[in-house]
C-alpha cells in the first residue's frame, strides 16, 4: 500500500514538474510558428482576391469596350483611353502615397530583411493592391506574382506590429514566411515559394530551425487557402509531355547556353531603360503619371488586335504549347514582348516581371524547338518540352535562382518527368550568365534603390543646411 502511495506521489510530482517547466519555458518559438500559419492563411486569401480582381478587371475592360464600341476603328482609341485611366490611377497612387510600391517589390523585401528598407504596411498594402489592379488591369506587360510577394511580407509586418512583438529576429522570420506565402499563392507552388526564400534571398534570410519552419508553414497554409478558393489544378494546364530521350539532352544544354545570353541582354536593357525613365521623370509626379498613362494606354490599344504581345503572358504560353503559332510569329511576338515587358517594368509601375519572363522563355524555347525539329527530324522532338524548359531557363538567367526556376515550372505545369532537361537547361543558363558578368536582377535593383535613397537624403540635408 505504501509503495502504491509512493508511486502515485512520484507520478503527480512528475506531472507538476512537466507543467511547471512548460509554464516557465520560452513560448516565443511556438508563437512565431502559429503567427506564420495565420499570416500564410491571410496571404493566401489576399493573394487569391488580388488574382481574381485583376482577372475580372481585365475581362471587364475588354468586354465593355467590345459591347459599347461597334466600329473596330473606334475600339482602339476607346481602349487606349480606358487603359490609360486605369494605369494612371496605379501610377498616381504609387508616386503620391507609397513610392516603395513601384515595381515588383521584391528588392524592397530583400532590403527589409537587411534592415535597409522600411516596411510601411499601412501604405503598401492598399497602394500595391489597388495600384496593381490599375496597372495590371490596363493590359500592361506585368505580372501579379512580385506584388503578391510584397503584399505577403507587408501582411507579416502588420501582424508583427499588431501582436507588438519586439524581437528583430522574429520580424525577419515572419517577413520571410510572408514572402514565401506570397510566391506560393501567386503560382500555386508551395515548394517554389520555400526555395525562393532559401535560394534567391539567401544573403538576407537568417537561417535557423524556427525561421525555416515558419517559411514552410507560411507557404503551406497559403497554398491550402488558395486551393480552397481556386481549386487544386495546376496554374498552367498545358497537358503532359513525354520524357526527353537521352540522345536529345545535349540540345537542352545548348538551349540553356543561349538563354544565358538572352538573360544578360534582358537585364541590361531593362536597367538601361529604368535609368532613362528616371532621368525623364526628374522626380515630378506629373511626368510619372502621364508616362504611365501613355504606356498603359498603348498596351491596351495594342491588345485590341494583337493581344499576344501584351498582358501577363499566360494565354501566350497556352497558345504556344498548343502549336498555334508559326516560327515567324514566334520571332515577332518574342521581339515585341521583349520590348513591352522591359518598358512596362522599368517605368516604375506597380507590377512584377515573373509571368512576362515565363512567357518570353516559352516563346524563345518554342523558336529553338522548331529550329531543332527542322535540323534533326529523326529525333521526333516535342517542341513543347523546349518551351517548358525555356520558362525556367530565362528565370534562372535573370533572377539567378535556377533551383527555384526548375521547381516553379514543374509545379506550375505538373510535367515532373521533364526534371532532367529542366536542370540541364537552367544550369547552362545560369553558368553563361555568371560567366558573362551578369548579376541577379533583384540584387541590382536593390542597390540602385539604396543609391537613390542615399542621394535623396543627401540632397535634403544640403537643402536644410543651405536654408539654415
Automatic annotation (TrEMBL):
A Pfam family of this chain: Voltage_CLC
Keyword terms: Chloride, Ion transport, Membrane, Transmembrane, Transmembrane helix, Transport
InterPro entries, per database record: Cl-channel_core, ClC
GO MF: voltage-gated chloride channel activity
Gene3D superfamilies per UniProt: Clc chloride channel
Primary localization: membrane
Segments traversing the membrane: 30-53, 73-94, 121-142, 174-198, 210-229, 249-273, 285-305, 317-336, 348-371, 383-410, 417-436
Compartments in which it is found: Membrane
Membrane topology: Multi-pass membrane protein
Gene Ontology CC terms: plasma membrane
Protein's name in the database: H+/Cl-exchange transporter
Source lineage: Bacteria, Pseudomonadati, Pseudomonadota, Gammaproteobacteria, Enterobacterales
Amino acid at each position: 500500500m505504501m509503495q502504491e502511495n509512493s508511486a502515485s506521489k512520484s507520478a503527480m510530482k512528475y506531472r507538476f514538474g512537466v507543467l511547471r517547466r512548460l509554464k516557465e519555458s520560452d513560448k516565443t518559438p511556438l508563437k512565431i510558428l502559429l503567427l506564420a500559419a495565420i499570416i500564410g492563411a491571410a496571404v493566401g486569401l489576399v493573394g487569391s482576391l488580388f488574382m481574381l480582381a485583376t482577372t475580372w478587371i481585365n475581362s471587364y475592360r475588354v468586354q465593355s469596350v467590345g459591347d459599347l464600341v461597334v466600329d473596330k476603328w473606334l475600339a482602339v482609341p476607346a481602349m487606349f483611353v480606358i487603359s490609360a485611366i486605369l494605369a494612371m490611377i496605379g501610377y498616381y497612387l504609387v508616386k503620391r502615397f507609397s513610392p516603395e510600391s513601384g515595381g515588383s517589390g521584391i528588392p524592397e523585401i530583400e532590403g527589409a530583411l537587411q534592415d535597409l528598407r522600411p516596411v510601411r504596411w499601412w501604405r503598401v498594402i492598399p497602394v500595391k493592391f489597388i495600384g496593381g489592379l490599375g496597372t495590371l488591369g490596363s493590359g500592361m506587360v506585368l505580372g501579379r506574382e512580385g506584388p503578391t510577394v510584397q503584399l505577403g511580407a507587408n501582411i507579416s509586418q502588420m501582424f508583427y506590429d499588431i501582436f507588438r512583438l519586439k524581437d528583430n529576429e522574429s520580424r525577419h522570420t515572419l517577413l520571410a514566411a510572408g514572402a514565401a506565402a506570397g510566391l506560393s499563392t501567386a503560382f500555386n507552388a508551395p515548394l517554389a515559394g520555400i526555395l525562393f526564400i532559401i535560394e534567391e534571398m539567401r544573403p538576407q534570410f537568417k537561417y535557423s530551425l524556427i525561421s525555416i519552419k515558419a517559411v514552410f508553414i507560411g507557404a503551406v497554409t497559403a497554398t491550402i487557402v488558395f486551393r480552397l478558393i481556386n481549386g487544386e489544378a495546376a496554374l498552367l494546364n498545358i497537358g503532359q509531355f513525354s520524357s526527353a530521350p537521352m540522345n536529345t539532352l545535349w540540345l537542352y544544354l545548348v538551349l540553356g547556353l543561349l538563354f544565358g545570353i538572352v538573360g544578360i541582354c534582358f537585364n541590361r536593357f531593362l536597367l538601361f531603360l529604368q535609368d532613362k525613365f528616371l532621368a525623364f521623370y526628374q522626380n515630378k509626379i506629373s511626368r510619372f503619371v502621364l508616362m504611365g498613362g501613355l504606356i498603359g494606354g498603348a498596351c491596351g490599344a495594342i491588345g485590341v488586335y494583337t493581344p499576344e504581345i501584351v498582358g501577363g503572358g499566360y494565354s501566350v504560353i497556352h497558345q504556344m504549347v498548343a502549336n498555334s503559332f508559326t516560327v515567324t510569329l514566334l520571332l515577332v511576338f518574342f521581339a515585341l514582348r521583349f520590348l513591352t515587358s522591359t518598358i512596362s517594368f522599368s517605368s516604375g509601375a506597380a507590377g512584377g516581371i515573373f509571368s512576362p519572363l515565363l512567357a518570353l522563355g516559352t516563346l524563345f524555347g518554342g523558336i529553338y524547338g522548331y529550329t531543332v525539329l527542322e535540323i534533326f527530324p529523326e529525333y521526333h522532338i516535342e517542341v513543347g518540352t523546349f518551351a517548358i524548359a525555356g520558362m525556367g531557363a530565362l528565370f534562372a538567367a535573370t533572377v539567378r535562382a535556377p533551383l527555384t526556376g526548375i521547381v516553379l515550372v514543374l509545379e506550375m505545369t505538373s510535367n515532373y518527368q521533364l526534371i532532367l532537361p529542366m536542370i540541364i537547361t537552367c544550369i547552362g543558363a545560369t553558368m553563361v550568365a555568371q560567366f558573362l558578368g551578369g548579376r541577379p536582377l533583384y540584387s541590382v535593383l536593390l542597390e540602385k534603390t539604396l543609391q537613390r535613397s542615399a542621394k535623396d537624403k543627401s540632397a535634403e540635408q544640403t537643402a536644410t543646411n543651405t536654408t539654415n
